[in-house]
Write a structure and sequence with these properties.
The longest helix is centred in the N-terminal third of the chain and has 15 residues. The chain has a single domain, classed as TIM Barrel, CATH 3.20.20.100. It is built from eleven helices and ten strands. An eight-stranded parallel sheet has the order 3-4-5-6-7-8-9-10. It has a two-stranded antiparallel sheet with strand order 1-2. By secondary structure, it is an alpha/beta fold.
């Protein structure tokens, strides 16, 4: 496993394991336990995913079984828009920590760029200063909103988790983040299965050169350009494949072939769509 160093010196695994859309407690707990056993050290969840307790149970079991120490893990969760305020974030953080069963958090993110994000950030910076969080950042802050936010806040976001995959490369957003010392992190690095990514002819042809699958090529492409990736799967065989990307390097020519797949827009979610914004603002966590 390779690591990235955040602006405050904290080291974050370049690849992690996500649990979005895995709400079933038993399935989620087993998946996270299997992921840790497979070698994943970054686990990414969120209050809205409704599975923080299951993630916490998996961490507890993995530590008790001697698979890993707490210090070797990098745990991320997120505050949802409905809790994005100073007091709301303080409360949401306490609830998340109780569900996760942790004494400290490695990374806390503002999940969406809506609500009182500046009040939420004030609360997060205080928790960070108190040592309760190792690093703080944002998610889904696209280039305009991210720039505004980073220009205004004193403590700059250390991570911005956005949609990044071969069909939505967002090189401009990545370069913009770098100006503020922010590390890009990819949600949906496998495009949530769209565009036949697992059997895509270009990715498959490149993969054959390195004895890798199309999915492994897509993941390595992001990692190779300095993007942290958090693929998800409840199947241990797929977990093993997804993490088996550290023994080869994609050539510059092949990287450019993958770059050429970029559509320049998302086909998963449009954060500028008023209906999407309304949904985000209406959705609630179980806190």
């Amino acid at each position: 496993m390779e690591y990235l160093t955040l602006s405050n010196g904290v080291k974050m695994p370049l690849e992690g394991f996500g649990v979005f859309q895995v709400p079933d407690p038993a399935v989620c707990t087993q998946a996270v336990y299997d992921a840790i056993k497979t070698g994943y050290r970054l686990i990414d969840t969120a209050a809205l995913y409704m599975n923080e307790e299951a993630v916490g149970q998996a961490i507890k079991k993995a530590v008790a079984d001697g698979l890993v120490t707490r210090e070797e893990l990098f745990i991320t969760t997120k505050v949802w828009a409905s809790d994005a305020s100073y007091e709301g974030t303080k409360k949401a953080f306490d609830i998340s920590m109780k569900k996760l069963g942790l004494d400290y958090l490695d990374l806390y993110l503002i999940h969406q760029p809506y609500g009182d994000v500046y009040g939420a950030w004030k609360a997060m910076t205080e928790l960070y200063t108190e040592g309760k969080i190792k690093a703080i950042g944002v998610a889904n802050f696209y280039i305009g909103k991210f720039t505004e936010f980073a220009e205004i806040v004193e403590t700059k976001p250390m991570v911005n988790q956005i949609e990044l995959h071969p069909f939505y490369a967002q090189y401009d957003a990545i370069e913009n983040m770098k100006q503020y010392g922010c590390v890009p992190q990819a949600w949906g690095p496998l495009a949530e299965g769209k565009h036949g990514i697992f059997t895509h002819p270009v990715l498959g042809e490149i993969g054959a050169k390195y004895n890798k699958t199309a999915a492994q090529i897509a993941l390595k492409w992001n990692a190779q350009r300095g993007v942290s990736i958090i693929p998800k799967s409840v199947h241990i065989e797929r977990m093993e494949q997804n993490i088996d990307i550290w023994d080869f390097t994609i050539s510059d020519g092949d990287m450019k072939k993958i770059d050429a797949l970029d559509l320049g827009h998302s086909e998963i979610i449009d954060h500028n769509d008023p209906e999407v914004v309304k949904y985000i603002l209406s959705a609630k966590t179980d806190s």
